[in-house]
Amino acid sequence: MDSTLTQTELNKSSKTKTDLFYDDVIAGLKSTPKRLNSKYFYDANGDKLFQELMNSPEYYPTNCELEIFSEKTAEIADSIIGDGDAFDLIELGAGDAMKSTYLLKYLVSKKADFTYLPIDISENVISYLNITLPVTLPGLKITGLNGEYFDMMEKAASISSRRKVVLFLGSNIGNMAVNDAIEFCRELRKHLSSGDMVLIGMDLKKDPKVVLAAYNDKEGITRRFNLNLLERINRELNANFDIDKFEHYPTYDPETGACKSYLISTVDQQVTINGKETISFLKDEYIYMEISQKFTIMQADQIAINTGFAPVGQFFDTRKWFIDAIWVAA
Ligand SMILES: C[S@@+](CC[C@H](N)C(=O)[O-])C[C@H]1O[C@@H](n2cnc3c(N)ncnc32)[C@H](O)[C@@H]1O
Question: Which of 17, 69, 121 to mutate to test the pocket of ligand 1 (most atoms within 8 A of CB)?
């Protein structure tokens, strides 16, 4: 037995993914106010809905970042290639890697010496990337890692000790409240060595109507994306949520930059999970589902400086709605 493992870690490692999902769901629905963790949005169905959302006219973040990656590929690549020494390109929450594929293609064409290590909690995403990328990008070295961000970063470090370049795109960082994002970046820094790099995407504050519309699209994809988590709980944890009795409610506060999604119970109701737990909802009670935080450019720099990084580069789309910033671990 590894004496460095704590009892909590041992308990965690002996639990299945379903056990952990169940524990988080029960803890979240028993807390006040009720909440669910947005990392569970992404089962196979959630991945599909997120891809649909990325193609919807209102969901601007993907197009902004796609513009940056497709128009500024060479500049981004030059910044991360540096002196040309070998590196690991680790992508946190890679999803379908649509944007990073521009960079990967360019790096392969330049014969850069790197291995791509996409990390994602969705098993579906990792097997998709492991299968498709070597076909679409011959010559790419790839090792997909299925699991939580930092667990998989530890695994990546155990595989290789090369210089690290971490991609954290799509404003995934925005799925944390600002203080949690700061804690996350501090933790990320601990997993890196001085000189390692981070390329981080952040959605910027803009016209509040534009922001809110992105999380309240006319086709109702965001609504289905949120309700899918209740359906996932029904499917995987043997629960009986009636999704017709919950309404999707997004809000945006231009002052704090917090865009939040809630599901509102439309009636007094009870839901049973796995025959073991009964959760009661009052009419109009909410479940807090997700935050999509918007930042200022100055805030992005401040987060870097306060968490052990130096901001060294900035890439914007033409409307300056989105930033991809390059940070170097100090
Ligand atoms: C909003 S999508 C963005 C995907 C991609 N980065 C992009 O920009 O299009 C978030 C992705 O992060 C993954 N994810 C969310 N929380 C995670 C966690 N704690 N650990 C690992 N992956 C996570 C999800 O499965 C999903 O594929």
Answer: 121
